[in-house]
Amino acid sequence: MATQTATVPAAAGSASGKPKEKKSQEEIYAEFQQLRNQQRNLVNNLNTIEMDLKEHKTVIDTLKTVESSRKCFRLIGGVLVEQTVEVVLPQLEQNKNQLEKLIEEGKEQITKKGLEINLFKDENNIKVRGQEPTQSAASEEKENVSEEKSSGNRNVLLTSGESENFFHLTVTGQLESAHFPMGPDGSGLFCRYDIVAGPDWELVSGLRSAVTQSARTEADYRTVVFNMPIEFTMKSTNPYGWPQIVFSLYGANLWNVETNRGYARVHCPLSGGGEGASSERTIRAPLFIPKYSNMCSAAMSWLSGVNPEMRDPKILTDGSKHKGLACETYGELVVRLQAITRGSSRMALDWGQTAVDERF
Question: Which of 109, 266, 336, 355 shows the smallest number of beta carbons within 10 Å?
């Protein structure tokens, strides 16, 4: 019994333990940044899944308009597999349902992570520069201002604030087709696009340039269908040098020689409807073909069927560099784009669009 009574105080003492050590400013900052990075990763994953869901919906809507026995190709593990619409359509619908469930789960995870970050901020009295305090936090701050001054217990995080210094532009869409009133001059057409932006713009995700497949006219001799997806995200500190897309069309001539069939450029649309909103816009960009200025070179071009080409088609985005260029227009590219901006309201940027203008 004496042994038991002697061990009871020792157990009580171990249960009480030592007081928890206070975290340093560096440890709090590192843990807070880790939570924010986890939240950013969740948001990026959610955006990727939403893009995949949108592509699935587009493909499903297209396949529903064709015959079930029609051939289609699906990319599986990097291998292009030939199947029929009847087989592919149920698989795509199943994948679409799974993506919708993943999006709901992702939103719940982002909400929980946000609550965790807010709780961590309250527990450690963190104030992030550039954020307005809530009314409850402001009242608590007034009550504890004298105590904080004496103890220096406030943790003010001076983060880099990328979301406050940059705004992001996400552009999605596709190069649908090329339309020629009297049919294309050549066969085996393919198109290359390049994204051109000002010096302050940085590509965050997506491809800066890409090439479509080789396509030919089918039922409609005036239209060549590409359906080339376009998707990229850029960030910038200001709207100067707004992104443009330059298209270069090529095809084979009568002598089966590859030659230029025209150039076109479009500005990426502004985000319609305010912060985070998107609106789809169809753009019909005219194609123009450069021409020689002297008669001799023009005659040789007509005989050989080879059109002059630009060394750098990106000069089309700068009006001062292609001034006086001789060219002729024939045909147009049909491009469908939509844009979403994030972070522009924090930088006092107002695009001034309440409705989307469908005109070119």
Answer: 355
What single string gives the DSSP state of each residue in 136-192? HHHHHHHHTHHHHHHH---EEE----HHHH-EEEEEEEEEEEEE-TT--SSEEEEEE
In terms of residues, how long is the chain? 360
Which helix (H) or strand (E) segment holds residue 6: the answer is: helix 2-16
Q: Is 360 helix (H, G, I), strand (E, B) or coil?
A: coil
Give the residue among 92, 21, 91 at the shortest CA–CA distance from 55: 92
pLDDT digits (tens, 9 = 90+) for 178-197: 999 888 877 789 999 999 99
Give the phi and the psi of residue 109 in degrees, each rounded to 5. -65, -40
* Alpha carbon distance 56, 52 (integer Å): 6
3-state secondary structure at position 335: strand
Q: Which residue has the tokens 């049909």?
A: 334
The H or E element that residue 119 is part of is helix 85-124
Q: Name the pTM for this structure.
A: 0.53
Rounded alpha-carbon distances, angstroms, from residue 136 to 32, 122, 124, 147, 304: 21, 11, 16, 17, 78
Other beta carbons within 10 Å of 84: 13
Question: Can you name the residues that pair with 211 across neighbouring β-strands?
Answer: 192
Domain ranges of the chain: 26-124, 167-347
CA 189 to chain centre: 27
Q: Please report, for the chain, how many H helices and E strands are present, in that order.
A: 7, 13
pLDDT tens digits, residue range 122-150?
888 877 654 555 454 445 544 544 444 44
**CATH fold of 26-124:** Helix Hairpins (1.10.287)
Half-sphere exposure for 283 (CA within 13 Å, toward CB): 23
Q: How many CB atoms lie within 10 A of CB 171?
A: 22
238: tokens are 């200001």
CATH number of 167-347: 2.60.40.150
